[in-house]
Amino acid sequence: MREGPTFGTVFTIEMDPRTAVFVPRGVGNSYQTLEDATTYSYLVNEHWRPGTTYPALNLADETAAIAWPIPLSESEISEKDKTTPRLADVVPMKPLKTLIVGALGQLGRALQADFPDADVVDLVEGAKDGVLDVSDPAQVAEFAWHDYQLVLNAAAYTAVDKAETTEGRRAAWAANAAAPATLARVATEHRLTLVHYSTDYVFDGTAELHTEDERYSPLGVYGQTKAAGDIAVATTPRHYIVRTSWVIGEGRNFVRTMQQLAADGISPTVVDDQVGRLTFTADLSRATRHLLDQGAPYGIYNVQGSGPRTSWAQLAKEVFRLSGRDPGEVTPVTTQQYVEGREGISPRPANGVLDLSKIQATGFTPADHLEQLRDYCESDRP
Ligand SMILES: NC(=O)c1ccc[n+]([C@@H]2O[C@H](COP(=O)([O-])OP(=O)(O)OC[C@H]3O[C@@H](n4cnc5c(N)ncnc54)[C@H](OP(=O)(O)O)[C@@H]3O)[C@@H](O)[C@H]2O)c1
User: What does the pLDDT look like over 190-222, one tens digit per residue?
Assistant: First the structure.
């Protein structure tokens, strides 16, 4: 009864006590008992739910033409079964769906392009399928998880410095740790796949190259909450944790800020002792699609732009150059110099370069981050 090429396919079997049949979701089943005192028993992995329409087929349907051993005219049929539709009138059962959570963020918007049939929700109004605050247990409890087989969790509290404030700390723990833990529980209960996104900020940045199995050592509140979220997500059997860094997409981000400063004639000071590589959301979304399409083993995968490691100051200079400003207008400073006289700056890892060999071994080639930066700056301006 499922939508697709097997819709309407019939399979029959004469059973005895030595046989059990697994009936997958969306496959209708019916039976006749051929002897008195026969027991026909079901073991179920999901119960009937009120408010859900299940497709049903008339036992006498001419297209399916089931060869009932006892003619239907001689068998007992319930009133309900007499009213079920012919195959031509059956509404096929839809496949289970994909849900994008945090769909209005930078990554959420890119995921929407690669998963066009997905349902999309966000914390605030504006997403096609409404509001879902994943840190609100009541909203999560009410949500129709039964309809989904895949959840892409692009929701996060990403204001790194604000996370160090009293209010920000609470919000960051709710969105980055408690919410993924809730989603992991949901994923286990409903046997769905959960894709979650992590960050190089779960490390202190002392390693030259961050591999997937490096131990957590976050410096600030944001990194601490993200590490807690990773640990929670890893408890559900079907999970991908995509670890990334310096995300650039549609929305507010470092490159947009530098373009704006360049356009406004401002000459900024930018830190030069934190190195990493940019990750463009289109590439991150493409990697997500790749892992799922390949059926790659569950676990953690680093995904970041390839190419040379660069500092924030080097990137700012490149944005200035691409904006037609003199890169010399960007003054490189140390983190120490930058934070002096500024309140509430969170500590950040000095090195955010991720080892890409695991994702590359699955057949995915991350694009060069500086080439993508050029395309990004040329195609769109603030
Ligand atoms: N940005 C980076 O540089 C970076 C680096 C490494 C890893 N990451 C990770 O990559 C992922 C995507 O980041 P991004 O840059 O796309 O973030 P983003 O632009 O800040 O988007 C996050 C989205 O999640 C929503 N959201 C926040 N709390 C939520 C909640 N409780 N329930 C539902 N939605 C909620 C936000 O809504 P509001 O805007 O209304 O709050 C926003 O639309 C995150 O897991 C992030 O930690 C990001």
Answer: 999 999 999 999 999 999 999 999 999 999 999
Ligand 1: lining residues by beta carbon, under 6 Å:
101-102, 104-108, 122-124, 133-135, 154-158, 175, 179, 197, 199, 226, 244-247, 251
- Model pLDDT for residues 256-282, shown as the tens digit of each residue: 999 999 999 999 999 999 999 999 999
For ligand 1, atom 39, the nearest C-alpha belongs to 105
Closest C-alpha to ligand 1, atom 20: 158
Annotation marks residue 216 as catalytic: no
Sorting pLDDT into bands at 50, 70 and 90, what band is 382? low
Residue 379 has pLDDT above 90, yes or no: no
The size of the chain, in residues, is: 382
Q: List, in order of start, the domains of the chain with CATH numbers.
A: 1-94 (no CATH), 97-379 (3.40.50.720)
